[in-house]
Give the backbone structure.
Amino acid sequence: MSIFILIPLLPLMAFLTLAFSGNRFGATSHRIGIPAVGLSFAFSVAALVSVSTGGPISISLYRLIEVGSLVVDLDLYIDQLTVLLLLLVTGVSFVVHVYSSRYMIGDPHYRRFFAVTTLFTFAMVALVMSNNLLLTYMLWEIMGICSYLLISHGADRTAAARAATKAFLTNSVADVGFGFGVVLTFATYGTLDIQQILAAAPSISGQSTNLLGWLGSELMIETNTLLTLLLFAGAVGKSAQVPLHIWLPFAMEAPTPVSALIHAATMVNAGPFLLVRLSPMLVLAPTTMTVIAVVGGTTALYGALVSLTQTDIKKLLAYSTISQIGFMIFACGVGAFVAAVFHLLAHGFLKGFLFLSTGNALRAVASHGHGESHAVPDSHALRLSSPLSLGALLLACIPALILFAGPYERMWTAHDLPSARAAFLFVGLGTVFFTAIYVFRGVVSLFQQQFAVRDDETGALVSIQPRMLSAAHVPGLVLGGIAGSALLMLLWSWFAEFLTPALGASRLASAVPVQAAVLSPWLLAPLTAAVAGWVVGYRLHSGSGLATLARSDWMKTLYVALLNKLYFDEIYDTYVVQPVLRLVNWLWRVVDLKGINSAVHGVGIAVLWFARGIGSVLEVHTVERGSTGVGRAVLILSRWLWGTIEGRGVERVVEESASSSLRLSAWLWRVVDRRVTDQALEGVGRLADETGLALQRIEPRTLQHHLLLVVCWLVLAIGLSYWFLL
Amino acid sequence: MPVLWTLNPAKFWPAKVRLMSLVFTDHLISWMIAVPFLTIAVVLFLPSDQWVRRVALAGTLTNLGLTGVLWSGFDLSTKGMQFVERSEWMPTFNIAYAVGVDGISILLVLLTTLLSPLCVLASWKVIDTKVKAFMGLVLLVEGAMIVVFTALDMFLFFMLWEVTMIPMYFMIILWGGPDRVAAGIKFVLYSLTGSLLLLVGILGLYLHGGHSFDMLHLARQSYPTDTQAWIFLAFLLAFAIKLPMVPFHSWLPDAHSEAPTAGSVILAGVLLKMGGYGFLRFCLPMLPDACERFGPAVLWLSVVAILYGGCLALAQSDLKKLVAYSSISHMGFVTLGIFSFNSQGIQGAVLQMFNHGITTGALFLAVGQLYDRTHSRLISDYGGLHKPMPRFVVFLSIFSVASFGLPGASNFIGEFLVLVGASYTSFVRVLLAMGGIVLAAAYMLWMLQRVVLGEAPRKIALLPDLSVRETVTLVPLTVMIFLVGLYPGPLMQLLDASVTNLLEQTKGAIPVDLAVLD
């Protein structure tokens, strides 16, 4: 058992402590959460050192299930990929915990908040460490319920409650795919151990499954393709990819630090992580890779476009996350797994930073009496004062640069069609372009904004500058620092080299030449796109560009469509949710109550009619006479019985039983008397005396008391007789 | 489960204690059957209602303790029946008093004895009229259920199967809700129909199996295929009504929702399991050919039940009915597992029966506690419970998420095993059954959203939180939910040998290694 078991264990223990402590900690709950996650982060750093020198570490916990050939061992596995994600998850989570300890002050559910965030951290940490597909699935779901609890944190608001339900249900629809994939993986590979599955993947390729066997027809699909598609379905849900992205913007109902946690550390990162973890399996299924690339690319473009139009800063960030995660998944789809991981890390730190800063800004507004209004006001004030924002902007573009920086060009041969390559290129560059615009806009409105706030007393407009909370400023800086230094330290080539063994070195090494990554001329393309986006963003904000655009009709239509997120929510509500509700109501009222239930009643009524029919067919008099006869016979019989039993039977029975019980007790007494030692006798005697005395006190003595006493004595007597006879 | 403590090998006990304990363990099951009936005898003579409750609680707790002894003395490696007792009863008809347990029955006995004390606790304050009669009925059901789950003689099985119905009927019509009489009559008529068919099946086996009611003997016989078919159909209908399977379920929502809390708990927690138990005890080992012949149909019916029950639960506006319909959905998993004819499926099915007993029992207890406060079962009458009753909300949420199979909670293990088992025969059914899990998540979370979250109406905002007694009622089930969900090993070891044995008896007719991919 390695010491690194503490990485997931510490947050778990913090959760258990908080969950079972009652109200002991109350407003000091963060004193449990922060050190646990902090230590967990420290151990993650240690794990990084250990893994980079000593290779992967395996930890076995216990056997969860063993039935026939189905064996599920809860194993943890720490390799290079895991260790990087551990750093991200525990690092961001630690900062979020520190930040929340101030942000959530005064919250009535302070303890619950920290309990759930620690559980959330535990689930994600354990997820990236898991070496068993079922364990992954379990933690996947536990993360879902954690997000449910955090989104519904402000439980008074109906919107929060709805958002929470929506988030969980959207995920559970996707998880049908994942769960089914797990079952199918077991059926195919005979194991759920991830390393064994990855090792066996090449031998399975070529096998195919008949999808329509149950209908008697045939539709063959390669087993690996089917499996990976199903597992990817889970990632679509959890990572908020189109078409299951609808839950993430609504998840903004959660307190802002939770958003930081969901968007930066846990939850949405699980999807790309899963894809990278299963990459040796994915590369064997080109169809799946194409699907992944298409879904990811669509999401990336969609998210970037929608976030251009959003006026709510938190919604804007949500769609930006959707877009960025889409970009990572797109990268996975074209085979650039290393770039995906790099982007994952960079985006994680950046998003964490952005959310926490947003929280500060919103706090600053809220403290002037406006509640948490998230609107981004239209503003033309533009000062590029903060070098921090510049850094953030660059960071958002850099992973994209890497993707186009050469080596992965060759991986794209997985999609050999020139049109496919062009499409991917277009999607990638488009995303970078639009990302630059909205990041520019978001950063500008956050940090360079003069907030105009109406003073409650005077009614006059008061300009305020958002202030950073003093303590919360530090985490922001820390995050920025971590991100910056991460960027410096993890030089791209080193990074790729470091990560390659975790991606199944033997299988991918030929396809990924690591060196000379930065020198490709392709580098210029995304850079140009980013700069172009930036310029467009500036033009739009400085006023002239926006006015020109607003004059054209199709632009307005597009704007409205994007503003409404392409009507995904409305479409789902009209074509999925409402029909399902109508269906279940119809099933209940028509099929169940009117159909099945009435059928049963019908049978009952038919039987009644049948009986009545028989009654009318039979001669009434005969029946009457017969029944009278029977009645008379019964009367005579019962009278006889009564006389016999009353007169002799009962008396005799009573007499006999009395005398026999007398005999029994006499016999018992003899037995007891003869064998019991004096001491025991004395003891029993004293006991009996005391019982008697105690019983005497209960007045009036009823028959029930006596009977109860008899029963007790009988039990005692049986016990004693066993004792002495044996 | 390692032998934690057992009376036999304890060397430090004096010889006499050891001898006594031998006498005791030799008749352990009889003792477990006797305790509820003895408790009834004591209860009948008690003068005060308070004492009636206390003695009933003591009796049920004693039996729970005895179950622990039974478990600790149970040999995990033995395949056959253990703790077998047999004595002649009506030799003319080869009827005997024969009881014994294997892993499957011990788990269901544990479920029975675990839920019974909680039923007594749940009725502590609510039942304030005819307390003696009510507690007597609870104890009577417990005793009868233990016999049903341990009987090795079909006649004994059938007799006590019938006996379980009567106390339930009285519980419903005497202490039930507004529509109690109709619900009670429906329950009895339905059950009687099932019993009649069960009797037909049992007599069929008796006549074709050498005039014996001995279940172990009958399982060793082989029967002509046609005979198997009609006996199987009789059993199928009988158990389908009890379980219940769609379309024989319409008694269940009424009976569940009209019964008092303890009645619902017993009904959903234990009584439904008699159906699944019947399949495992009669159909699989005695009628393997018929099982194979009708298996696919039953599997499809199970899938229909899972989806249909889930859909109907989603449509409900009544809390108890929602839980009742969810039971139909969950019991679909039981038949889905049983008729997969492999160890994963059957172990999953038995675990699912156990887990369903725990979670649905817990849900009925929780809903009952809510009903005690407001006398309303309508979801729309609630809202924002998190404010006045935070402790209750924690429990309700745990039970709800456990009920739809959240990993880490008990139901997940059973459902996963059933799905793996079912995947040996068909993937489509697995996929459809997983749709049932989504439905389950939908109706449970939607219920939580409407009951727990949001703004509390004024009437709701003043409700008192759980009392100590009510908390004590819920805690054991919560512990069981997580214990089974995170460390199901002991339960599965308990089942392992018995299920293997069951499959060996069935194996003659059914190929276990069905095509992995169809």
